[in-house]
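re: ur question from yesterday

yeah so i grabbed the chain u mentioned. its 213 aa long if i counted rite. heres the sequnce exactly as i have it in my notes:
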Amino acid sequence: MLKGSSLEFGYYRWLERYLVPLLALTGIKPDHLSLLGLVISLVAGIAFAFYPLVGGLLTLLTGLLDTLDGSLARSTGQNRKFGAFLDSVLDRYTELIIYIGVWFYFYRQGSASPAFYLTFLFILFGSLMVSYTRARAEGLGERCVGGVFQRGERIILIALAGIFNPLVNRLMGSPAGHWISDIVLVVVLIVLAVGTNLTAIWRFLNVLRNLRP
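ran it thru and got these structure tokens back, copy pasting raw so excuse formatting
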């Protein structure tokens, strides 16, 4: 989500008012939610390869679990370094698994061109650098949460693309195996390839400016 925005504030407020109290009553731990998110991401990745609509819905669920574990940890006083580290590492695996599912979908369609592979590499590189710049900056004691294409935004975009892609395909009656038949996914992948790298560069320059003597 957009860090510091009213949308993010309202979303977390809704979680803490309605869902977190229910989870606290069950006795489930934040780490359990993190592990459950990883399992569901595996299912989402497989589903994306064959049924993008299902993959998109499951991807949204992984995003929900990712925000729930942190909210539950704060609300129940279980905010530990162990859980924070576990959640951060599993988040990277979760996102990568979903991207692999999207890649396999295009591979199955026979529409994975060299340009597609290049776009995919840019997405993976950009996503990695967005996370790394934040981790390295915070290791130096510098706050680094700016930029539009953070993990929450990336998960939401790819999930919505998976949900709407088959619906748009049906409306357009696009020929199978041609890139235009998956125009929604193609456009979102291009946006992610550009947006993630711009976010990483923005963070890099911003932190450099703040650290300069």
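noticed a couple things. The mean pLDDT is 87. also Helices lie at 6-26, 30-50, 52-75, 81-109, 114-139, 151-172, 183-211.
anyway ttyl
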